[in-house]
Description:
mainly alpha, two-stranded antiparallel sheet, globular
Amino acid sequence: xxxxxxxxxxxxxxxxxxxxxxxxxxxxxxxxxxxxxxxxxxxxxxxxxxxxxxxxxxxxxxxxxxxxxxxxxxxxxxxxxxxxxxxxxxxxxxxxxxxxxxxxxxxxxxxxxxxxxxxxxxxxxxxxxxxxxxxxxxxxxxxxxxxxx
Length: 149
């Protein structure tokens, strides 16, 4: 696999010294940095839960990285699909939220004002819900609370 040269090495192509076996189908990289992934993380977690669980069960069966390549590729495809859907309907809200996270040390709490319209857009466009693991069931979820004045 040949990739364009990095800015530190202009004009040089990078060749992966350990490419995957030719028998495995190609899967694109997710192609997102930390802030967009964090912004979409709860939705990716909900949408890709079954694939993630299959992958983790596979990893528990055998720690050999080659053993779970198929399951890992399904997780990657699901994450790519989720990000494409988010961008297709809620690009402006998504970009505003992840830019805020990027500028504010990846802290959700400092970006709640932009998280609300982002969540509402996804809820309306896709009917998705935001599952927060281990959240108390007797209280409103943190992204649904009204900030204290």
